């Protein structure tokens, strides 16, 4: 099998990234996201690096995965946590090292940036497969629960 290459997403990726967001939301949470909203939200990240960055995984020139990295300042650590979000691996490419390649790329970049104090992600409490994947990458459950008021999706 061909190796996975990782690159920074660009404006030409917006439609595909947004489509994958919608597919992931439907598959993992049963939520149907508005196409125009996801396109605008994805484009906003591409156009404003302060919001984060997308990484795209490709195999033989075909996009097989993606993720978003966003930022959270930690006053306790005087550093930035990178949050892995919007993870998607194409169905036919799952269990073939795509997420590992994305994850390793993020950790490699984060570890060389002196301003980054750690990497976090959140995962649905019922998504045991994803939890096992993240644990296999050396991540562990934090002692925090996430609380929210969602003004858009409820």
From TrEMBL:
Q: Which GO terms describe its molecular function?
A: acyltransferase activity, transferring groups other than amino-acyl groups
Query: What name has this protein been given in UniProt?
Result: GNAT family N-acetyltransferase
PANTHER family for this protein: AMINOALKYLPHOSPHONATE N-ACETYLTRANSFERASE-RELATED, AMINOALKYLPHOSPHONATE N-ACETYLTRANSFERASE-RELATED-RELATED
Q: Which UniProt keywords apply?
A: Acyltransferase, Transferase
Boundaries of every N-acetyltransferase domain copy: 4-154
Entries under InterPro entries matching the protein: Acyl_CoA_acyltransferase, Bact_Acetyltransf, GNAT_dom
Which range is the signal sequence, renumbered to this chain? none
**Gene3D superfamilies to which the protein is assigned, alphabetical:** 3.40.630.30
Which source organism?
Polyangium fumosum
Q: Does the keyword section mention Acyltransferase?
A: yes
């Amino acid at each position: 099998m061909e190796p996975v290459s990782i690159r920074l997403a660009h404006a030409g990726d917006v439609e595909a990234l947004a489509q994958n967001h919608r597919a992931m939301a439907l598959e993992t949470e049963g939520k149907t996201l508005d196409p125009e909203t996801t396109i605008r939200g994805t484009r906003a990240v591409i156009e404003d690096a302060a919001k984060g960055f997308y990484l795209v995984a490709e195999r033989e020139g075909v996009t097989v995965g993606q993720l978003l990295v966003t930022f959270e300042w930690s006053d306790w650590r005087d550093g930035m946590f990178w949050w892995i979000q919007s993870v998607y691996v194409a169905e036919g490419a799952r269990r073939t090292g795509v997420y590992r390649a994305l994850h390793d790329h993020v950790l490699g970049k984060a570890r060389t940036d002196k301003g980054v104090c750690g990497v976090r992600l959140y995962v649905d409490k019922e998504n045991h497969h994803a939890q096992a994947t993240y644990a296999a990458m050396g991540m562990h459950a934090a002692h925090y629960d996430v609380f929210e008021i969602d003004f858009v999706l409820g």
